[in-house]
Amino acid sequence: MYIARSRNARYPSSQVEGLAARLGVEYIEDHPVPADRLGLLVSNAGYLLYVPGHPPQAWHPGMTVMRCRTPERDPLIRALGLLPGETVLDGTLGLGHDAWVVLSVGGRVIGVEANPLLALFTETGMRTVDPERCRGLRVITGRFEAHLTAPRAEVYDHVYLDPLFGGEGQASAGTWAPIRAVGRAGRFDLDGLLLAFDSARRQLVVKLAPGEAPPSLPGRPEPVIVSSKRLAFAVWAH
Length: 238
Ligand SMILES: C[S@@+](CC[C@H](N)C(=O)[O-])C[C@H]1O[C@@H](n2cnc3c(N)ncnc32)[C@H](O)[C@@H]1O
Fold this sequence. Notes:
By secondary structure, this protein is an alpha/beta fold. The protein has helices spanning 13-23, 64-69, 75-80, 97-104, 116-129, 177-182, 190-199, and strands spanning 2-5, 26-29, 39-43, 46-50, 87-90, 108-113, 137-141, 158-161, 203-208, 224-227, 232-237. The termini are far apart. Residues 91-92, 94-98, 112-115, 118, 143-145, 162, 164-166, 179, 182, 184-185 line the site of S-adenosylmethionine (SAM).
């Protein structure tokens, strides 16, 4: 991974170099950027994410624009059943699309993302596109397991985990390329899921693959499934 600075960027090179050092990634001055690695270009047009085999992309809310229009029909929003002022710890922030929808209905989000480049790209992009909406957003770089504080510390009402790629199909192939590049989360191990449930004040919500049975959490209540035609979420409530 790398951070590059375009030659005419208004940010001083020392600032961008410092950012790369903080994130522990290589610093590259100017184009051309390596074609075989995930990287971020700092330019006057903002942060552009370079994914091998894809055109550079600025952060955009993608299909969430539609989801935000009718949130009452959105299966994630239905699964969360947010009460005013509640906080969701989104343990797999990724491109922040689910977090964007949660913020649109007034939820507060603590987004945790393991990949430092993606965490920076997503947070900066979201704040640039709609600073007002992102007042309730906090982003942490790292693994969610390290930020959970069981037993229920009342810091977050819901823990949400999404180990899957977003929207299947050609139309969204480019949008989700960064997630493919950083690697899918895979199934979380049982200890991580138990910690997630035990840390949430109200509930744990996990996105399921189509037709996938929810994992069984020993000693915890059975989950309820909330689904739409394309998506399903398992909800374990306290
Ligand atoms: C499928 S994506 C999530 C997509 C996200 N829901 C969205 O709407 O954009 C999974 C993300 O979780 C991150 N990830 C995987 N394991 C993680 C962990 N243990 N802690 C934090 N982030 C993790 C990956 O780097 C990837 O960006």
